[in-house]
Design goal:
Layout (H helix, E strand, L loop, with lengths): L1 H10 L1 E3 L3 E3 L10 H15 L6 E5 L2 H13 L3 E4 L11 E8 L4 E8 L8 E9 L3 H13 L2 E11 L4 H7 L4 E11 L2 E4 L4
Parallel strand pairs: 3-4, 3-7, 7-8, 8-9
Antiparallel strand pairs: 1-2, 5-6, 9-10
């Protein structure tokens, strides 16, 4: 998605440790018009895949999932990064290691929101090593739900997450794939 790539080039910041900071439009301050275009693009890509539920992880994926759900007219469910007292009943859990926060945590999702027969579109803002995505896939497996596809705003193509998911047979659509990052800038993978 050329518009997303342009915004990354104009406003993104490369930080030490392969960190790409896009908090001014994607995951802290939100450009709702851009997010709506992202949601429309995910709808275009996955509309024929029988999706009946959209799944993400808190917090950065929620806005992306909600804007996409507008186009599908479907509900969004999100895994929480900690089991809170207001989650009633049984939950699915999976361990996830966060590179950004440098720690491991359990993600949880109430069992009543994901069931066998669900066709899930999983969405997130970033894909690098794929740890969060593997946790969400594990929750889908536990629920007996099938994964219709995975949509990512920004994939770090030089890290293994995307290649591993594609090799496992998942339909993965990343709207911007960063092939390299350094203090002097970044390059995107060409489409095709």
């Amino acid at each position: 998605m050329k518009l997303l790539e342009q915004r990354i080039l104009e406003e993104g910041q490369v930080r030490p440790g392969n960190v790409l900071k896009v908090d001014c439009f994607l995951n802290h301050q939100l450009d709702v018009e851009l997010l709506d275009l992202i949601g429309e693009e995910f709808y275009r890509i996955f509309k024929e895949d029988g999706v009946n539920k959209i799944l993400t992880i808190e917090a950065s994926g929620i806005a992306i999932a909600c804007m996409t759900a507008r186009h599908f007219h479907l509900p969004v469910v999100f895994a929480k990064k900690a089991k809170s007292k207001n989650i009633d009943g049984d939950v699915f859990t999976s361990k996830v290691h966060s590179y950004t926060y440098g720690r491991e945590y359990d993600i949880t999702l109430a069992k009543k929101f994901l069931a066998p027969g669900d066709r899930v579109l999983i969405l997130d803002d970033f894909l690098a090593n794929g740890k969060a995505m593997k946790g969400l896939l594990d929750i889908c497996r536990q629920a007996g739900a099938s994964v219709a596809g995975i949509g990512i705003c920004i994939e770090k193509g030089f890290q293994p997450g995307g290649a591993e998911l594609r090799a496992a047979g998942y339909k993965l659509a990343s709207l911007a794939i960063v092939d390299s990052m350094s203090d002097s800038g970044l390059t995107f993978r060409e489409e095709g």
